[in-house]
Design goal:
79% helix; mainly alpha; single chain; 184 residues
Length: 184
């Protein structure tokens, strides 16, 4: 808990002491992460599916080493096909949740923005980026765009924002308790 508090203190301190630098660094992170998402989006189905298969087989081997699942035979196990779909959706949620957190962080350095605006822009940005991502995939061999994936992306953004606001609430509560103690 103390490590989280120290991290939050440093985060807030840097946002207050150097707001322009803070925003610039976070915007560079947003642009870099968006570029990484678009790079993965531009991979053909064989490359993208191969990566998912490697991750899935590695997870299965870690959980059940005696399963005998390999890259050569994992497609014959029907349940693994469904697991791969779930894994890919979780990856979507995670990558776009991170993007939402980065956008929120960049906006945190702009004090003129209300909390409501800072809460609305990240999911809107994620929805727009996810839409561009899915449109881009329609131009890649073996890939197709899916509006369901855009919805999954936005859900990932919303979950990330909920986590951020819960952590802030926890931080503020802990700070108020600590500051109200005698000798604090």
């Amino acid at each position: 808990m103390k490590m989280l508090i120290r991290a939050m203190d440093g985060y807030r301190r840097s946002a207050r002491s150097h707001p322009a630098l803070f925003v610039c660094i976070n915007l560079i992170l947003v642009i870099s992460w968006t570029g990484l998402i678009m790079r993965f989006s531009g991979e053909n189905a064989e490359v993208s599916g191969g990566r998912s298969a490697r991750i899935l087989v590695t997870l299965v081997r870690a959980i059940a080493p005696s399963s005998g699942v390999t890259l050569d035979n994992y497609e014959t196990v029907l349940v693994l096909d469904n697991c791969e779909k779930v894994l890919r959706k979780l990856a979507h949620m995670t990558e776009y949740g991170i993007l939402a957190a980065l956008v929120w962080s960049a906006l945190y350095g702009i004090k003129k923005l209300s909390r409501r605006i800072r809460s609305l822009i990240p999911p809107l940005f994620v929805g727009l980026t996810g839409s561009i991502d899915e449109i881009n995939q329609t131009r890649v061999d073996g890939r197709y765009g899916s509006w369901f994936d855009v919805c999954v992306d936005v859900v990932g953004a919303l979950i990330a924002l909920i986590v951020i606001y819960r952590l802030i609430r926890l931080y503020d509560r802990w700070k108020s308790v600590t500051n109200s103690r005698p000798g604090a």
